[in-house]
Amino acid sequence: MGIEFASSGPSINHPVIWVNRGRARRAPLQLGTRMLITHEDNVAFRKIADSLRMSRRMEIEGENDENVAALLYEDPFPDQHLHQEIARPRTAFIVGRKGTGKSTILQKVQSDLEGERRAITAYLDVKSINREADLSHVVFPNEQHRLFGRRIAWFQAFLRPLLEQITDQLERRSPQSNFISLMRGRNGRSEALQGVKSLVDVNRYIQDVDVSTNSMATVGSRTAQQDDRGYVGGVRITANGPAAEMGVRGGRLIETEQTVEHRERNIIRVFQFGRFVHELKSALHAVGVKYVYVFLDDYSEISKDDAASLMNEIIHPLDTATDELFKFKIAVYPNAYDLGLLEPSRIDVHYLDISSLHSRRNVPEMEASAIDYVRRLLVRRFEYFSRRKKIDSFFRAPMGDVYSLLFQASFCNPRTLGWVLYFAAEDGLADGQPLSLEAIRNGARKYYERILSVQISDRRMISAPREQRDKIIVANSLLDELVRDAKQLRKFKGTKYFSEIKRDNPTSHFYCSVKYDEFLVDLQEFQLLNFYKSIKNKDGKLVNLYALDFGLCEFFGILYGKPGRGSDDKDYWVQRVFDFDACVRNSYEGVQIFRCDKCSASRSAVDSERFREYDFLCPACKQGRLVKEVLSREDDVSSSTEEEVLSNDEFNLLTILRSVGADERIGAKKIASVIDISPQAVGKIAKRLAEAGHVERVKAGSVYTYAITESANRRFFPNVARRDGETDGRSVGGWRH
User: What is each CA distance from 717 to 588, 648, 655, 707, in whole angstroms?
Assistant: First the structure.
């Protein structure tokens, strides 16, 4: 206790505390006068939640065309350190899980750079580029033609929007009112525009290169004549001399030899990046532009092969051939990106997850910084959207408790925070009363039930593509074990330390050996598990501390955090009962194995670290490679062969439609802001789902609005939380109670 918020922003002197069912001790707070929440207040609160829930770049209209992204952006550090680092003229990867604010910070940096005369910016959606470059419907005569066609499609899909945005910015630029602009006049901008527009035809930079080779070959002819039973003979061309001798049974042998020149014709097509960049630099030099900042969003949303092609065939050549012209800012997921051919020493990597941002701080300091970030994030939005009431008017609890609880519920993930507030307001603000702590807990639980749990439900597993299905099986198996052990430990009083805790034990956190990190990646990707911090256990060994999702804990009745025993709490999470190595290992062994692609020998998946040292060479046959294999249940396999397969985008669209009110219809723009695809893509996907009978598609004026059909709700979301907050059979994420 006794830790205070950072001094930046409004002064709030509440200690960082753990809130468990309202039993935590609170510091005194002057609440002020509470007023009823009006309809106008409710609308403002919804806008705040929506602005946090957005997956894509903010398109909220501000007053007088103000830049809302710049106004609402809140840096994880009070001194704007992260934003300043990312804005530096260096290529950088921005690493964070879904909802951590990657798109927002890219938008903020791009907004700030728009006033920089020496820089031009471009924002590219990698998923959209990938769709534009898709040639799966084209039939090629051979693999070489297919690879080249794909490469050219990438060039066109990437460079065309890039050059269009550069052109647009040049056209919108006003001339400088100084001596340089007077010297250049309008001719400089005209010259730049003409030069950039000429680059759009990428076919100008495709060149055929003749790499044909010459070789000398000997033509040998041998004919063996026999008696009247016939003859046999043969001819072969080799580069090393005559062909092997042929056996004959009798008669005479006639030999001839001739040396000939053989030419192997081989033409390859290349894209002249050097020439392209030189001409682009020359055009931009006319207006004094030194840097082109390219912001790439959704990089980790495309396949590994496509990401590798984009990195090695476009980003890397542009980065190396431009002589510091291009600076890439690339948003990626943890464990889902590769630097490819880029030189690591020239690349910056910035992490957005709160545990990575504050990795050098101890747990209490990390929590204090995280809670302060939640406070600053919300205060800024309430000041913008709610001009009539301050933030404390919307809550009926001390604000220190509110911020602490919202940190636990969201783990500093802005999108999760938006969802929690969105669901908390569903019932909490309906009667005109401010939100209670219980309403926040209910909001977190609903977010788990309606959004998170459906990602790994049995129905989703059956309808998912194969790779996604395997992830769901692994995540379900592990989460089943973790929840079971956490529930069993609630009543544990087997040591003196736990016997002094007079109520159920909070069991939301656990630790495991660093070597098991890779086994927990899928659960973190589904946002059901949060990496908390690397700590030392009671034996002095470095381990990793994790926390189950707060809403999941609320759903299963698992107390979150610590027991609230003051200074004794600092040793709580390192107690040996929270060593979950065996739990993680047993789960992984039960659902995954390594199998040799030659001899079919199987090995435990737990030994992956040892196999990696030998490049996964099979220890049995010494020839094959060990390939990871997920063990599916027989009923899963039989069901999945009969069920319609939905892509992640299709399933996410249905999930969002299901999360809104029963009679509410929403448009493509609203859906796109939440599930991280363009409104145009939403329209195409929704039309396809409507044709399959899963979505009701109704035209309202010039746009379409959408709602999920009852048949789709029953088919893809049985045994999970319904819109009214109840559950059918209480089966969520594979568990039945």
Answer: 27, 15, 9, 14
**Which residues are within 8 A (CB) of 200 and not within 5 positions of it... i.e. 6 or more apart?**
159, 160, 163, 164
Opening angle at CA 553, ends 549 and 557, nearest 5: 175
Give the helix ranges, DSSP H, for 548-701.
Answer: 550-556, 581-591, 608-613, 634-642, 648-659, 668-675, 679-691
Residue with tokens 């209209």: 61
pLDDT band at 565 (very low <50, low <70, confident <90, very high): low
Inter-residue contact 409 to 418 (CB < 8 Å): no
Contact between residue 226 and residue 250 where contact means Cβ atoms under 8 Å apart: yes
Nearest to 578 by CA among 513, 529, 509: 509
State the burial class of residue 70 (Cβ atoms within 10 Å of its Cβ: 0-12, 13-18, 19+): middle
Q: 111 in the Ramachandran plot: left (φ > 0), alpha (ψ -120 to 50) or beta? A: alpha
Q: What is the distance between the alpha carbons of residues 630 and 592, in angstroms, rounded to a whole number?
A: 5
- Residue 541 structure tokens: 């060994």
**Average pLDDT taken over every residue of the chain:** 79
pLDDT, tens digit, 9 for 90 and up, residues 230-246 = 333 333 333 333 333 33
Residues in the chain: 737
First-to-final CA distance of the chain:
37
Name the nearest CA neighbour of 527 among 301, 724, 334, 367: 334
Q: Give residue 662's pLDDT.
A: 56
What does the alpha-carbon distance between residue 162 and residue 132 come to, in Å, rounded to a whole number?
Answer: 14
Beta bridge partners, 215, equal 262
Alpha carbon distance 460, 234 (integer Å): 63
Which helix (H) or strand (E) is 439 found in, with range?
helix 437-447
Distance in angstroms (rounded) separating the CA atoms of residues 60 and 466: 37
Task: Report how far apart, in Å, the C-alpha atoms of 301 and of each of 175, 334, 433, 445 are.
Answer: 39, 12, 41, 27
Comparing CA positions, the residue from 345, 390, 475, 302 lying closest to residue 31 is 390
pLDDT range class, residue 303, cuts 50, 70, 90: confident
Helix (H, G, I), strand (E, B) or coil at 384: helix
Tokens read off for 58: 């903010």
Q: Find out whether 413 and 97 touch, Cβ atoms under 8 Å.
A: yes
How far apart CA 706 and CA 273 sit, in angstroms, is: 44
User: 3-state secondary structure string, 295-331?
Assistant: EEECHHHCCHHHHHHHHHHHHHHHHHHCCCCEEEEEE
Average pLDDT of the residues in 21-41: 57
Angle of helix 273-285 relative to helix 179-198, nearest 10 degrees, comes to 150
| Residues 6 or more apart in contact with residue 371 via CB below 8 angstroms | 5, 16, 403, 404, 407
pTM (global) more than 0.70: yes
Three-class secondary structure of residue 66 per DSSP: coil
| Partner residues linked to 422 by β-bridges | none
CA 386 – CA 42 distance, rounded (Å): 10
Closest-CA residue to 366 (of 513, 530, 568): 530
Three-state secondary structure call for residue 490: helix
- The answer to whether 505 touches 494, Cβ cutoff 8 Å, is no
Q: Are 711 and 693 in contact (CB under 8 A)?
A: yes
The answer to whether residue 4 scores a pLDDT higher than 50 is no
Instruction: Give the pLDDT confidence score for residue 327 in this predicted structure.
Output: 93
